[in-house]
Specification:
The structure is a homohexamer. By secondary structure, chain A is an all-alpha fold. Helix content of chain A is about 85%, strand content about 0%. In chain A, helix 1 crosses helix 3, helix 4 packs antiparallel against helix 5 and helix 4 crosses helix 7.
Chain lengths: ~140, ~140, ~140, ~140, ~140, ~140
Amino acid sequence: MSHSARYERGLAKFGEMYGDLAKTFLASLEDIAPDLGIYVMEFAFGDIHCRPGLSLPSREIATVAALTAIGTAGPQLRAHIDGALNVGCTEQEVVEVIMQMALYAGFPAALNGMQIARDVFQERSHKKIQKKQVGRRNKK
Amino acid sequence: MSHSARYERGLAKFGEMYGDLAKTFLASLEDIAPDLGIYVMEFAFGDIHCRPGLSLPSREIATVAALTAIGTAGPQLRAHIDGALNVGCTEQEVVEVIMQMALYAGFPAALNGMQIARDVFQERSHKKIQKKQVGRRNKK
Amino acid sequence: MSHSARYERGLAKFGEMYGDLAKTFLASLEDIAPDLGIYVMEFAFGDIHCRPGLSLPSREIATVAALTAIGTAGPQLRAHIDGALNVGCTEQEVVEVIMQMALYAGFPAALNGMQIARDVFQERSHKKIQKKQVGRRNKK
Amino acid sequence: MSHSARYERGLAKFGEMYGDLAKTFLASLEDIAPDLGIYVMEFAFGDIHCRPGLSLPSREIATVAALTAIGTAGPQLRAHIDGALNVGCTEQEVVEVIMQMALYAGFPAALNGMQIARDVFQERSHKKIQKKQVGRRNKK
Amino acid sequence: MSHSARYERGLAKFGEMYGDLAKTFLASLEDIAPDLGIYVMEFAFGDIHCRPGLSLPSREIATVAALTAIGTAGPQLRAHIDGALNVGCTEQEVVEVIMQMALYAGFPAALNGMQIARDVFQERSHKKIQKKQVGRRNKK
Amino acid sequence: MSHSARYERGLAKFGEMYGDLAKTFLASLEDIAPDLGIYVMEFAFGDIHCRPGLSLPSREIATVAALTAIGTAGPQLRAHIDGALNVGCTEQEVVEVIMQMALYAGFPAALNGMQIARDVFQERSHKKIQKKQVGRRNKK
């Protein structure tokens, strides 16, 4: 079934960007608007994010820029900063993109975006430390 | 003078991105708010656009994304699409960035951004043809 | 007094849409800007929401759409989703309006609006269950 | 081919709403981003606008509300006011929706939306008169 | 009639700010939504702009700031820059307010607002010159 | 060093507006984007807020208006309401500016801004009471 093909392609792309968070995301819509979750997988990740012509890191730079500038999409900005780092953007690049938004959307947009980036960076750093500790323990 | 240093650095960066349009830009503010033009050169181009940590093409991808998403900055979007192409982004990359904004800011934002890109592409194509024709004539 | 007439008409319309929440709403402004509460009753509910030419459910569909698209009015979106259901819109209609905003304001707007709808639906469902339980107890 | 099925369904829905304007719309994207036109037909009109659970007139009321409130989508607001009238909304309903946006997005949003509605109403009225005149001439 | 009292008070305040433009403004809504014009006079000018507690020049500074920052209200920004000058703000103050918006809404908002200010200043300057010339001619 | 001159000037202006909060503000950016803090001091406070031609209270009225209207800058609105009161605006003026935004950005913007103002007023009032109590205790 072709519907399923787009969905599966989107799910794979989502996985490439966010690891195993698809279940959590889809579950948050399951009891109210499961079709919206399907459209996100099919159209946002299956159609748009799979297009050639722009690298995935560049797509994430564009997304972090747009969401910082818009200023109304906190949870999505958080997710895409994480996604940007997962597909190869550096923390410095994320910081630079957000800082540059001071020019186009004003300082409050940049400052609020930066606090979200800070949270994401800290969370990732905690996870890394925990993984290392688990790794050490398992070696013993 | 250090003020001048930032200004000069910004002017050079502006030139790298937009050729000799600085005069036109600064002139548009000269009789009303010349300081705003100075701040654009000093802060926007001299401080932010000269920062390391993010390539100039990536900075332009972020800017085209943000201005398309915001939807209130037509003249600036036009200028930055031109700037993006001048610093090495391809037309296809610009198209992809704008198209992707349908996801984050809705289809109208993407459609209106695309019409601006179309105008810029056509203008550049006309200029190229004219240059070629002038080139041929000069060879004769 | 005519001022009072518009206010009273607004208060009645507010009551039709939100039950007895007017006191809570007006109290939240009483110590800082009571006139803003008066204007909301007079102008928003007494003038606009009482106009003929558009049914109340359609007015609420328009409001839920606009507040979801704008994305900066969480508490008001919450209230108007509740109001929409109170004046005869179905939960499915509310879900469809919010989902459709993905087209015009982007997926983040739709996703964030949907989480607010979800909260409102759950709260209403809890209240219904509580009422039933109280009803049963009272019968005993 | 299933892609074609969504596209064809969207094209039919687009036709139901806007008559034979699909060609003009798709042509405006053909030389720059034809895929964006395809996504509009597939996703916006084929997926979302074909969903059950909300009548087409209510969908257009939601869209006119959102586009008026956002204020950055002039050409799309124009098209959807026309679409709203084509699927059975009255001019009065459109006027009421736009007027109500004064409450949620401010008077400038309502005033600017109203001028667009005025243009659309006048254009439709001119077309009707022309049709009648052509009709009379043909009868002679 | 009290409705009329608010309307008349608003009309007088509108006149204080914009001279004899009320007719033009009301006429632009007469054939489509005359009530919206009435609400503007009653609520915007009769209720809000007549409130004590903030001087009229400060109200106009707030309005020019907000409309520049929002970026979707060109015609209204134009009118309120004119109004600000009519109630005693200086051109320099208007320029400073708009320039400051670069901080809060980004440089494009400030740049686009400044071009509108420039148009208004030039128009007023032309009118002054014309008046002087008419004055001279009448003296002859 | 001239860089330092702008920074120091900005820091002094910041102090004039917010007392000793500069450290807290700069610390919030220190581990992620210290340069953004520097730009805020240099450009926002050292360049723009130090300009002549508009009084500091008027600058704060413009800022409170813009941030209320934009609706995406909660923490900054909170800070600037506090700043407005520190440089001589009255609570009533702040309330009037925010209320007036109902006209230009809609009632939700005004209502949400007013709740932030309410929090700031209460916090300041608590601090005053505490200071008085400390003063009394110290006298004993």
